[in-house]
Amino acid sequence: MVKRPWLVPLAFLLVYVIWGSTYLAIKISIETIPPFVMAGVRFLVAGAALYAGARLAGAPAPVGVEWRTAAIVGLFLLLGGNGGVVMAQKSVPSGLASLIVAGVAIWMALFEALRPGGRWPTIPVAIGLVGGLGGVALLIGPWGSGRVDPFGAALLVGATISWAIGSIYARGARLPKSAFVATAVEMMAGGLGLVLLAGVTGQWGQLDLKSVTTASALAMVYLAVFGSIVAFTAYVWLLSVRPPSLVATYAYVNPVVAVVLGALFAHETLAPRTLIAAGAIVASVAVITTFSKPKNAAAPVRPAPATEVTQVAP
After folding, report:
1. pLDDT confidence tier of residue 308, bands split at 50, 70 and 90
2. What sign does the dihedral 185-190-194-197 (CA atoms) show?
3. Residue 88, C-beta contacts closer than 8 angstroms, at least 6 positions apart
4. What is the C-alpha separation between 194 and 188, in angstroms, rounded?
5. Which helix (H) or strand (E) holds 96?
6. Residue 145's pLDDT is what?
């Protein structure tokens, strides 16, 4: 029983709105800050702060193997997953990016079926897979109006695949007992990987601090503080007081929030085919999330940061 019942709807609101708004915040932040630089600094700072807070609260420090496995998860989720998202948003509108990213639930269900010893989807999940893949194909295909930049679309699909692989690996990996410590290590590892990638790709040389606008700087702070710490804290708390299936509804609410915010504040247009594809993707994620159950239904899957989990943390 929750002592303060009003905290539950507040936590849901934080997860829905903050994680849905991160796509718009990314769009604003990378207008004057190179994408990999922005994401790398964001996750390094947020991860270090989250780790310090968790340890001060009494969470145990990871042992050697836990550092390694959490770092591997972080590289898949944040270097491959979030790195692809932030780079893609240089050419793909934030609302469309959120819809393609929502397809990570589709890839996870597909990879779960194909991996050795995996589980084949039930009929409802199979229908959701077909509908979701069709929606993604309609959204990024070369036909009709409202075509998505192919390079950006490829980055986003690659990001969702990387996130799905990292999420499936995390299910069987030995991670730190504290979800906060595990996520902090994942953030620091992914952030370090992004910082190094920024150096390899020359993005540190493209950074001009004098040209960084106040809006971009504030957007990056918002992503680090609210996107990576506040919303995640609300998410972990919700998992302790509400069924995981109910908490997982963020996976299909976030894209709707992102599309609406993109249209309102970034003047992103919604072509008819985009609306149809959006409906197919969001519906498929809802079906897959509702009818997919882990082998051990009594043990909820350890949450990853953002997404932001079954969603790429943007």
Report:
1. very low
2. positive
3. 97, 151, 152, 153, 155, 156, 159
4. 10
5. helix 94-102
6. 56
